[in-house]
C-alpha cells in the first residue's frame, strides 16, 4: 500500500507539557472520530513503549504516510504517541504522569497491555523499592511544578504593567490589517471550522524545546508577533484563529508550555499560514510585528521593576528544569525492576500485530473514504 506524498512527511509535537498547573495534556488527535482508531499502550517503565511507537511510525513512513510524532516532555528523544492523520490512526502510551483511559472503548479505542508480557512475581519482589522510587519521583515533579507556578506568578507581575501601559487601539488596528491580508478571498462559511489543541513547545529537563521547525517550510507564510507579557500576543492569536474558523478553516491552537490558557502559535493548514510568537531560526518571515512598539512612554518608569522580575522569572525556570532532571533520573531507576522481567520477544510480536492492525485500518479507512465520497456525489 502506498499513500500520496505529503508536504510534511514527519511533523513533531509534544504529547503534554510540564506547566505551572502541573502536567497538562490535551489528548486531542482529531476533531472527528468517525472511523478513527486509537490504540492505548499500558506498561511500566522500560517495557518498550517508546521503541514500540518508533517502530510503528517507521513502518507507516515506509508505507508513504505522513506521521506526527508526539514526544515526551520529560525526555524529548522518547515518543509518547504517533498519529497518522490521513487514516485517523493513533498509537499512544498512557502511563506514568499522563495516565488516561479510553473514552470510547471498543468503538474507537483499544488497550494494549504490555503487562501481559512481564513476570509479575519477579517485579513484586521489588515492591518496596518501586514504591519508594515512585514517591521520590513524585516529590521532584511536585517541586518542579511549584517552581513553574512561581515563574507564572512572577510573569504576571510584568504582564500587569505591560497591559496597563499598552495602546490596544494599535493592537486592534494590527488585528484588522492581518485579517484583511489573511482572509480576503475567504468568505464567511455556513459552518464553523474545526479546531485542534496541542503543544509545539515544552519545558524539559534539557531546557526549552520547540518543534515549530517541523511545520514551517519555504512555502509557509510565517507571521511573527513579538512582545512582552501582557502586550496582547496571545489574545491577538486567539482572535485571528476565531476569524479563520468563521471562514470554515481548520485551526490548530498551539498552547504556551508554562500556561496552557495562553497561545504560542496558531496554524491554519488550508492556507499554509503560521502565526507565531517565536522567531524561528532559518525561516523567512512574511511579516514581523513587535507589540512593544505600542507601549506608552509611561512604561519607562517601570523598567527596573520589570528587569528584577525578569531575573526572578529566569531563576524559577532554571530551578524547575534542574528539578525535572532529578525527577527524570529518579524515575529512570524504576526500569531496573521491569526490564529483567520482560519478555521482549512477545512485546515485539505484539508490536508487529499492532502494526498489521493499523495497516488493515488504513485499508478500511480508504474504503470508507471512497464510500463517503460516493454518497456525497449521489446527494448533489
Structural Rg:
23 Å
List the total number of helices: 7
User: What is the straight-line distance between the termini?
Assistant: 31 Å
What's the pLDDT, averaged over the residues?
A: 89
Please mark out the parts with pLDDT under 50 across 5 or more consecutive residues, or reply none. 1-6, 370-380
Instruction: Describe the main β-sheet briefly.
Output: 6 strands, mixed
- How many domains comprise the coordinates? 2
**SSE string:** EEEEHEEEEHHHEEEEHEEEEHH
Spatial order of strands in the largest sheet: 1-5-6-7-4-8
Class of secondary structure makeup: alpha/beta
Morphology call: flat
InterPro entries: P-loop_NTPase
Structure description:
This protein has 380 residues and is an alpha/beta fold. It has two domains: 10-117 and 343-377, no CATH class; 167-294, no CATH class. Helices cover 40% and strands 20% of the residues. The chain contains seven helices and 16 strands. The protein has helices at 49-62, 120-124, 127-164, 168-183, 233-246, 303-332, 344-379, and strands spanning 10-14, 16-19, 22-25, 37-42, 67-71, 79-84, 89-93, 109-113, 195-198, 201-204, 207-210, 221-226, 251-255, 263-268, 273-276, 287-290. Strands 1-5-6-7-4-8 form a six-stranded mixed beta sheet, covered by helices on one side. Strands 9-13-14-15-12-16 form a six-stranded mixed beta sheet, with helices on one face. A two-stranded antiparallel sheet has the order 2-3. A hairpin with a 4-residue loop joins strand 14 and strand 15 (273-276). Helix 1 (49-62) packs across helix 7. The longest helix is centred in the middle third of the chain and has 38 residues, at 127-164. It is flat and about 70 Å long. The two termini are 31 Å apart. Residues 1-6 and 370-380 have low confidence and may be disordered.
Amino acid at each position: 500500500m502506498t499513500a500520496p506524498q505529503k508536504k510534511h512527511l514527519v511533523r513533531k509535537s509534544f504529547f503534554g507539557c510540564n506547566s505551572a498547573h502541573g502536567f497538562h495534556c490535551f489528548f486531542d488527535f482529531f476533531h472527528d472520530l468517525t472511523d478513527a482508531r486509537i490504540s492505548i499502550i499500558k506498561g511500566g517503565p522500560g517495557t518498550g513503549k517508546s521503541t514500540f511507537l518508533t517502530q510503528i511510525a517507521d513502518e507507516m513512513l515506509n508505507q508513504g504516510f505522513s506521521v506526527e510524532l508526539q514526544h515526551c516532555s520529560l525526555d524529548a528523544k522518547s515518543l509518547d504517541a504517533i498519529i497518522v492523520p490521513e487514516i485517523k490512526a493513533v498509537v499512544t502510551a498512557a502511563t506514568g504522569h499522563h495516565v488516561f483511559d479510553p473514552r470510547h472503548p471498543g468503538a474507537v479505542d483499544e488497550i494494549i497491555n504490555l503487562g501481559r508480557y512481564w513476570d509479575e512475581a519477579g517485579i513484586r519482589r521489588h515492591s518496596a523499592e518501586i514504591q519508594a522510587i515512585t514517591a521520590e519521583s513524585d516529590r521532584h515533579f511536585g517541586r518542579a511544578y511549584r517552581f513553574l507556578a512561581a515563574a507564572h506568578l512572577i510573569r504576571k507581575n510584568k504582564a500587569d504593567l505591560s497591559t496597563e501601559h499598552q495602546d490596544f487601539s494599535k493592537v486592534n488596528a494590527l488585528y484588522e490589517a492581518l485579517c484583511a491580508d489573511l482572509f480576503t478571498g475567504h468568505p464567511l462559511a455556513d459552518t464553523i471550522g474545526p479546531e485542534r489543541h496541542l503543544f509545539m513547545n515544552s519545558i524539559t529537563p534539557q531546557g526549552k524545546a520547540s518543534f515549530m521547525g517541523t511545520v514551517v517550510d519555504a512555502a509557509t507564510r510565517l507571521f511573527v508577533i513579538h512582545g512582552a507579557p501582557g502586550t496582547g500576543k496571545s489574545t491577538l492569536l486567539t482572535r485571528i484563529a476565531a476569524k479563520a474558523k468563521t471562514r470554515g478553516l481548520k485551526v490548530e491552537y498551539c498552547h504556551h508550555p508554562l500556561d496552557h490558557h495562553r497561545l504560542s502559535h496558531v496554524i491554519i493548514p488550508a492556507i499554509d499560514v503560521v502565526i507565531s510568537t517565536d522567531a524561528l531560526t532559518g525561516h523567512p518571515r512574511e511579516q514581523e510585528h513587535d507589540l512593544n512598539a505600542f507601549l506608552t512612554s509611561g512604561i519607562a518608569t517601570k523598567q527596573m521593576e520589570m528587569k528584577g522580575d525578569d531575573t526572578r522569572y529566569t531563576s524559577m525556570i532554571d530551578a524547575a528544569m534542574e528539578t525535572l532532571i532529578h525527577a527524570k533520573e529518579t524515575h529512570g531507576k524504576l526500569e531496573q525492576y521491569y526490564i529483567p522481567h520482560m519478555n521482549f520477544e512477545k512485546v515485539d510480536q505484539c508490536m508487529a500485530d499492532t502494526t498489521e492492525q493499523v495497516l488493515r485500518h488504513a485499508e478500511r479507512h480508504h474504503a470508507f473514504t471512497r464510500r463517503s465520497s460516493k454518497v456525497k456525489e449521489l446527494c448533489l
